[in-house]
Amino acid sequence: MNIKIALLNGDGIGPEVNKQAVKVLQAVAKVFNHQFEFKEALVGAIAIDETGNPLPDATLEICKASDAVLFGAIGDPKYDNDPSAKVRPEQGLLKLRKELGLFANIRPIKAYKTLLDNSPLKKSIIEGVDMVIFRELTGGIYFGEKTISSDGKTASDLCEYSDYEIERVAHLAFQSAMKRNKKLTLVDKANVLETSRLWRKVVTEISKSYPNVVLDFLFVDNAAMQMILNPKQFDVIVTENMFGDIISDEGSVIGGSIGLLASASIGLDKALFEPIHGSYPQGKGKNIANPVAAILSASMLLDHFGLTIEAEAVRFAVEATIENNIVTPDLNAVRNFGTDYVGDTIANVILNKSALNSSNQDNINFGKSVLI
Ligand code: IPM
Ligand code: MG
């Protein structure tokens, strides 16, 4: 298969982790006889520095002409600490999501057996957790009208949803639940918000087309608590943009490091793959960033194009590498390896150059795509 991939490395550790994802995809291309063509483009703070625009037109064009986007990370403290900045790196990512119509953000959360002790949560609580969050990505408060009064003392962000926006992400979530444990939880705030009441109505209506899926509802404050109290109860979660942003970061605690969590953002004809972690500017250039989230995002790219065996090979290699304690400092403060060494090891397992074995194959889900 020939896949054209726009490579948007972005800021901070983005370039370093994406480099490892590319390395791993190149190993997959070699072993399974595919052609992946990468085209680099600017995004985020580095794009502002060079062009004044966090998403230059040239970048958008490259993304539109590609089959998929591999995204690193964006963000820079010089913008985070300046609320008056008119142009911000994050605008680049938000505009990209909107322009490419990436309405569903899929974030799998899993507790790796070998890393159970890494989580601040008790082993008994997280062992066996395997859930996926479907976050609506192009609507809600993120994209509603924003105002600030002329005296600068009053501001507003409008939260708006149409039935269509809810339907399309809900269908994806139901289809995923059908392939998994047939449970879907809608996270909302229907006791307060009108938009949440619309979500309940639309999702309940759609559930009639998926009679085998058990649908339940949780208010977001309770969901935030349940994610920590009893995360095993969740199979698939569907939720609006901002609630999804918040609970998916919370979910990363289960896996022991945010450096492990991958995501796919899917639209009708485009898809983007990115680690859920940020740009970690303090770690930039130190060869300490965990490349696993970027590499697992690349495995979701393979899944998206139906290359399930290839995606499994990547997940197996990641698992074997973690199990053999070849991990970055976020996962082992005492005995650890560099970003590129971890990436090399994962690529070498795929290339069969490394004899690492994994006994924990239950974490890998052979024959089962993590995407729908
Ligand atoms: C994420 C990030 C983004 C978001 C930021 C960088 C705009 O937190 O992808 O979760 O809020 O969506
Ligand atoms: Mg976030």
CATH architecture tag of the largest domain: 3-Layer(aba) Sandwich
| Strand order in the largest sheet | 2-1-3-12-11-4-5-10-8-9
Fraction of residues in β-strands: 15-25%
Q: Could you tell me the number of beta strands?
A: 12
Average pLDDT reading: 94
- What level of helicity do the residues show? 40-55%
Distinct small molecules bound, one entry per kind: 3-isopropylmalic acid, magnesium ion
CATH class type of the largest domain: Alpha Beta
First-to-last CA distance: 20 Å
Model regions low in confidence, pLDDT < 50 over at least 5 residues:
360-368
CA radius of gyration: 20 Å
- Structural class call reads alpha/beta
Order of helices and strands: EHEHHEHHEHEEEHEHEHEHEEHHH
CATH superfamily descriptor of the largest domain: Isopropylmalate Dehydrogenase
**Can you summarize the main beta sheet?**
10 strands, mixed
Number of helices: 13
Summed up, the domain count is 2
Assign an overall shape.
globular
What is the name of the CATH topology of the largest domain? Answer: Isopropylmalate Dehydrogenase
